[in-house]
Amino acid sequence: MLINKTGEINHMYRERYRLLLPNTMTKRPSIFKQWFEETGNLSAFAGRYLRDSLRPPYDFGELLRQAFEVGYRSLGLVAITAFIMGLVITIQSRPTLVEFGAESWLPAMVSVSLVREIVPVVTALICAGRVGSGIGAELGSMKVTEQIDAMEVSGTNPFKYLVVSRITAATLMLPILVVIADAVSLWGAYIGVNIKGVVSYDLYVRQVFDTLEYSDVVPSIIKCVFFGFAIGLIGCFKGYTTTKGTEGVGMAANAAVVVSSLVVFIIDLLAAQITDLLNLN
Questions:
Q1: Cα–Cα distance between 235 and 140 in angstroms, integer?
Q2: Alpha carbon 260 to chain centroid, angstroms
Q3: Residue 143 in contact with residue 244, Cβ under 8 Å?
Q4: Residue 234 near residue 172, CB atoms below 8 Å
Q5: Contact (Cβ atoms closer than 8 angstroms) between residue 259 and residue 238
Q6: For the whole model, what pTM was predicted?
Q7: Residue 92: how many CA atoms within 13 Å on its side-chain side?
Q8: pLDDT range class, residue 24, cuts 50, 70, 90
Q9: Helix/strand/coil percent split, the chain, to 5
Q10: What are 69-113's pLDDT values in tens digits?
Q11: For the chain, which residues make up each domain, given as ranges?
């Protein structure tokens, strides 16, 4: 009798949990709902930045310090990467051009590829990994240790001091880094051209600048402004809204790198489509 009662009780609980399971699952937020909420919060965060960035007072000292951290601290890594890119792409492209008897087109082809697409995207990804993660971890640690709350209590505007300066610095410094990286990558390409051939520096420079046009340089610089803005915005957003204590700091730094890298590719895709439409018109 006890066995029968026990079996009936187990059967009753199984039926109860089976009926409650779909209701429990429906209460969990869907991926699309979470994505739309995150996008809305990020848009509101960007709107607050645009509003506060135009409202005095302006802290130029903090802006210069963040520009130094974002630009100068990243210059060495960006320059080394750009030099290797120019050298490797030139070496890898030579055999194909030699096969078609177009080796003389090597400086022109490499320069357009580097300036128009490769250098801006790779530089933005480097900054997303270094700058985005650094901003996310720094602001995240300040958030979980309640330093941001302490600034609000003391009468300081932490958003203007911490967020506006970092986003503005990233927006201004990334195009400058890309211009320097373009010059270094073209120098690396010149060395790559002369590894298995002899091309004078004057001839190389003349071929490069005869091939490059404003339609190659200007769009790459303009999209780098959006790259820098996206990297700074996402890094600050992830760090400023960190939760879950010290575990959230690592999650914020990781999310800043992943999301900003994805946004860089999306912006690059949109910029390529817009540039193509403008060239057709």
A1: 10
A2: 4
A3: no
A4: no
A5: yes
A6: 0.84
A7: 8
A8: very low
A9: 90, 0, 10
A10: 999 999 999 999 999 999 999 999 888 888 887 778 888 889 999
A11: 59-280
